[in-house]
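Obj: model holo form, ligand = zinc ion.
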Amino acid sequence: MKYGKTPWDNMTKDELLFEVWRLYQAAESARTCIKLHKIQTLTSSFWSNRGTGGNALNRLGEAMETVSKLSDKKKERLWHDFFRNALPLLFKSAKKGYWNWLVCEKCNCWTSGIEPVEKCILCGNKDLRPIRWSDFRK
Ligand SMILES: [Zn+2]
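Output (holo structure tokens):
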């Protein structure tokens, strides 16, 4: 395969950005799971720098350097202001459960909960819709 033939080569800037967000979030989830597994099997050579697990963690760490260099405050905002809210838009599998953010058509409040949300927590309006990308640009 040559340059120009990968699935990303003909994407628009917005499509590429979407892929970056998805892959970053999925990589962070995977890294957390791998780290938990590493704690349970720490003595294995699998986790050395030459081992498969050690290599995977090193590569994930390198791929995620852009965000890891941010201040703790900026990282926290990235997760709470963007990824937590954008999950149902980034992943079909995230549409189940309490990640379904809804937006009040009357006051523009965002709401979510473990139980199904039937009305706006601020104004009581029952006209709620699923979150969409345009909500992030306001
Ligand atoms: Zn409202």
